[in-house]
Design a protein that fits this description.
The structure holds 2 protein chains of 2 kinds. Chain A is α+β, with helices and mostly antiparallel strands. Chain A is built from 11 helices and 9 strands. In chain A, the strands form 3 sheets. A 4-stranded antiparallel β-sheet of chain A has the order 2-3-7-6, covered by helices on one side. Chain A has a 3-stranded mixed β-sheet with strand order 1-4-5, with helices on one face. In chain A, helix 2 runs parallel beside helix 4, helix 4 packs antiparallel against helix 5 and helix 4 packs across helix 7. Chain B contains 6 helices and 13 strands. In chain B, strands 11-10-9-12-8-1-6-7-13 form a 9-stranded mixed β-sheet, with helices on both faces. In chain B, strands 2-5 form a two-stranded antiparallel ribbon. A two-stranded antiparallel ribbon of chain B has the order 3-4. The chains are: A alpha+beta, B alpha/beta. Chains A and B meet through helix 1 and helix 2 of A and helix 1, helix 2 and helix 5 of B. Bound molecules: flavin-adenine dinucleotide (FAD). Flavin-adenine dinucleotide binds next to strand 1, strand 3 and helix 11 of chain A.
Chain lengths: 404, 245
């Protein structure tokens, strides 16, 4: 669909047209569609023209933060009284899908901000913490990151060693340890960090940039998620005020609740990446002539395209249903795991097949496919690996844990 | 400053165009509708003016309930309130008559339209409105500034530009360069939920013209290749078949 944005900017190369084989749009409200179109218009106008360059240079597009905030990418599902969107979970999913349609790295930045930073503050924070941080985070005036993973504890976060103890002044705690693979860490103003207290219980604690002993070295040379900044969080006797501790949660439930919200967004987002790869391959295959005819006319290519749209359509339905359950507060963590695992996996498969369909052109930055494919290697790993989500489903249906 | 912006609801430019009822009606099945892009420019410019000088921007749309998503989008972009005249927008005269009736009762300082609808491209509403309201009407403007009740506008003319100044109230129609269209942001979309959208019934005449038939442009023919040394047959075709030499 072409709005005024494209009517007046017709020479832009982002030709994306979203596939909707089962008329899923009929399940959306007019407001959902308006939000989707607005995000898409913004992406096509401001993000698509720079994304390839940003990815090649592996820099985070800081100047896009305001635009992301304006389209509502930061915590749209949280209440308006804290300066957030007050929208439903389907809206949240739609926004993540439109962003990841362009690039998983940009979507990651939004996921972290909305689900892993704003959500825990909203869900587990004090009223003061909510008013202090949420409106600024929604506007992108403050950016945050989420520190769970450690060098020696990835899939098994319960084993974390980052810890804090009473400073003895009744006002502070002393935080020590290190987190690794933290999205947004190099530029984040605040970090929601999960650490053990003296009783060995996991608590969330808000660490602010500038606190003495807190550093955020960047992780370089990634081949994936190059538009998203990744780094470490290092805590060396960091003195943190006790009022920065999230009061209302204790144990692994805290970080896992946030991950549920983020994984839900990823399940929508990954389909976006798949939709973009499919759309690109479909257009290319109808234009590319070999042996005197468009390659889309060859059965082997049609098989790829037909299977792609079948998988995308199944995922769209699965995810829409999950969105309804989220809105009703009935979605279980295991249901979210299934959607995250399924959708990221299909997106990876779609990207690999789509890349082949473009032949040599598929490996260049002229097209988005290879970038999506490389990005998805992170998406299939973070927020619970492909294997771990399978074990969650396994445990859910058998009642037996295969983790340990 | 009280500004009225005319918003029409038109098929998205990528729509596949087909007709029904013996080629007298546009087939809307499966077609997505958008705000007419030139009208969106008019709306954006109106907002820029009121954001600087204060005032309100009302949008008016002649259309059935299915035009409301576009009207909501106008509110999300920033209009203060909206009016929908509950009737099918059949021809330019009918549309202008409805808008004029509303505008006369309300009294606006400035009425902006798009230079044309990208659906039927008749480009008449601005001119008709001027006539019906007894106001000056300036067509196809590429800029407008307002100071002390006087609008200074630029418009494209053949091979150059014309600068026009005119006392308010007036009607003007927007051309491409007028401004950049705005993308609604989340805050605007939230605010649009509670902004007033008033529905009024149509008044005045029935439509004054009727479509006899629509025709699609002829499909592009194939290309005939003629070898460079065969100029004689090229001349033969141009002379005998196409009859242009
Ligand atoms: C780009 C990027 C951004 C990230 N952003 C963040 C962030 O913002 N915040 C954050 O806290 N973390 C973040 N992560 C970390 C991410 O969540 C972890 O990488 C992930 O949880 C996996 O942990 P690991 O890398 O230590 O792998 P490991 O846990 O060592 O896993 C290695 C392999 O072993 C498998 N495995 C592990 N345990 C089992 C088991 N019981 N049974 C079967 N197989 C098993 C895994 O499936 C995997 O294939 C990010 C990671 C990346 C790559």
């Amino acid at each position: 669909m072409n709005t005024s944005q494209e009517f007046f900017h017709a020479n832009k190369p982002d030709l994306y047209n979203h596939p909707d084989y089962y008329l899923m749009d009929e399940l959306l409200t007019e407001e959902h569609k308006l939000i989707r179109q607005s995000v898409r218009d913004w992406v096509k106008k401001d993000l698509s023209p720079i994304i390839e360059d940003v990815a090649q240079k592996a820099t985070f597009p800081m100047h896009m933060i305001k635009g992301l905030a304006d389209v509502g990418a930061f915590g749209p599902q949280l209440p308006a009284e804290y300066g957030c969107g007050g929208m439903d979970y389907i809206t949240y999913g739609i926004i993540m899908q439109e962003l990841e349609r362009c690039d998983s790295g940009v979507r990651s930045t939004a996921s972290v901000q909305g689900s892993l930073v704003m959500y825990p503050i909203y869900k587990f924070g004090s009223e003061e913490q909510k008013h202090k941080y949420l409106p600024k985070l929604a506007k992108g005036e403050l950016m945050g990151c989420f520190g769970l993973t450690e060098p020696n504890h990835g899939s098994n976060p319960a084993g974390m060693t980052t810890n804090f103890r009473d400073a003895g002044d009744g006002k502070h705690v002393i935080l020590n340890g290190a987190k690794m693979w933290i999205s947004n860490s190099p530029f984040a103003d605040i970090a929601v960090v999960w650490a053990k207290n003296e009783q060995g219980k996991i608590k969330g604690i808000i660490v602010e940039r500038g606190m003495e002993g807190f550093t955020t070295p960047e992780t370089h040379n990634k081949w994936s998620l190059r538009t998203s900044a990744t780094g470490e969080l290092v805590f060396n006797d960091v003195k943190v005020p006790v009022e920065n501790i999230l009061p209302s949660v204790e144990g692994l439930k805290g970080p896992l609740t946030c991950l549920n919200s983020a994984r839900y967004g990823i399940s929508w987002g990954a389909i976006g990446a798949a939709m973009d790869c499919y759309d690109t391959a479909l257009r290319y295959s109808k234009e590319r002539i070999q042996f005197g005819r468009p390659i889309a006319g060859f059965q082997l290519q049609q098989k790829k395209l037909a299977e792609m749209i079948t998988e995308i359509t199944k995922a769209q339905l699965l995810t829409w249903r999950l969105g309804v359950l989220m809105n009703e507060g009935r979605a279980t963590p295991a249901q979210i795991s299934m959607a995250k695992r399924n959708n990221v996996d299909l997106a990876l498969n779609v990207s690999r097949n789509a890349r082949q369909m473009l032949g040599g052109m598929g490996i260049t930055g002229e097209y988005s496919i290879m970038r999506h494919m490389m990005n998805l290697e992170s998406v299939v790993t973070y927020e619970g690996t492909h294997d771990i989500h399978l074990l969650i489903t396994g445990m859910d249906i058998t009642g037996i844990s295969a983790f340990e | 400053m009280k500004i009225l912006v005319c918003l029409s609801n038109v098929p998205d430019t990528t729509s596949k165009i087909t007709f029904t009822d013996n080629n007298t009606k546009f087939n809307t099945a499966g077609v997505q509708f958008i705000i007419n892009p030139y009208d969106e420019l008019a709306l954006t410019r109106a907002l820029e003016i009121t954001e600087k000088q204060g005032g309100t921007v009302t949008t008016i749309t002649v259309g059935l309930p299915e035009t409301e998503p576009s009207i909501r989008k106008g509110l999300a972009i920033g209009a203060t309130d909206a009016v929908r005249v509950n009737a099918e927008a059949t021809d330019a005269y009918f549309v202008a008559e409805q808008i004029a009736a509303y505008a006369k009762a309300e009294g606006f300082d400035l009425i902006l339209t798009g230079r044309e609808g990208i659906d039927y491209n008749s480009g008449q509403v601005a001119g008709l409105l001027g006539e019906m309201l007894g106001l000056p009407s300036v067509n196809v403007i590429t800029s407008i500034e307002i100071e002390n009740g006087i609008a200074t506008m630029e418009r494209d003319i053949d091979g150059g530009k014309e600068k026009v100044s005119c006392k308010l109230p007036l009607v003007a129609s927007a051309q491409k360069e007028l401004t950049e269209p705005r993308i609604p942001n989340m805050r605007g979309i939230m605010a649009a939920r509670t902004k007033p959208l008033k529905v009024v019934e149509a008044t005045g005449s029935e439509k004054t013209s009727a479509t006899v038939a629509f025709d699609l442009p002829p499909a592009k023919g194939g290309v005939k290749l003629i070898a460079p040394e065969d100029a004689a047959s090229l001349i033969g075709i141009l002379h005998n078949d196409i009859k242009i030499i």
